[in-house]
Amino acid sequence: MSLVLDPAAQDLLFREARTANTFTDEPVTDEQVQAIYDLVKYGPTAFNQTPLRITLVRSPEARERLVKHMAEGNRAKTATAPLVAILSADNEFHEELPQLFPAFPQAKDAIFGERPVREASATMNAALQAAYFIVGVRAAGLAAGPMTGLDFEGVRKEFLDDDHTPLMVVNIGRPGENAWYPRSPRLSYDEVVTTV
């Protein structure tokens, strides 16, 4: 069976998608970011929860504050990317559930009343939304450089609060010179899929 999605779109979103390591200095606009979000917000999550929060790092002062929390190998990339996004999970996402999941508004308290349950669900579903966000960046014709090499607690204290858990930092822009490392191997279907 073939995929319904056009082969060029398959290439753009998946087969040609790699972490960008360099970027041009062409700016990424708020309109581009809004278009990305307006597309990816429709990706499915459990109970239609929307725990992903996006902090755009634009000012030189904020960029400097962020770079000091990045792993050594990620500092130059973060310092020079046209736009950097801190993706985090809102552990109080349940407050929005009566609006976002009206079929079962009691889920707010009945399922997510306990903080540890909320944190686990927020992390899993925000990570899912982060993946949608990265694919959305690709759909906008931009390159993404998602990174988890950072001081998570430092980023939380510097940019977030106790109700938000940082997940990753994503550099965003047009790919620059020598932006890509060679494609790394992937596991085959038979190595990943088990039928029971």
Architecture overview:
It is a single chain. The chain has 196 residues and is α+β, with helices and mostly antiparallel strands. The chain has nine helices and four strands. The chain has helices at residues 7-15, 30-40, 60-67, 72-80, 97-100, 107-110, 115-139, 152-159, 189-192, and strands at 52-57, 83-90, 143-147, 164-173. Strands 1-2-4-3 form a four-stranded antiparallel sheet. Helix 2 (30-40) crosses helix 7 and helix 3 (60-67) runs antiparallel to helix 4 (72-80). The chain is globular.
Tell me briefly what this model is.
The protein is an alpha+beta fold and 196 residues long. The chain contains nine helices and four strands, in the order ααβααβαααβαβα. It is 42% helix and 15% strand.
How is the biggest beta sheet arranged? 4 strands, antiparallel
Enumerate how many helices there are, as a single number.
9
**Element-by-element helix/strand order:** HHEHHEHHHEHEH
| Helix-and-strand structural type | alpha+beta
Give me the count of strands.
Answer: 4
Indicate the mean pLDDT: 96
Strand order in space, largest sheet? 1-2-4-3
End-to-end separation in angstroms reads 22 Å
Q: Could you tell me the radius of gyration in angstroms?
A: 18 Å
Roughly what percent helix?
A: 40-55%
Shape: globular
Low-confidence stretches: none
As a percent range, the share of strand residues is 5-15%
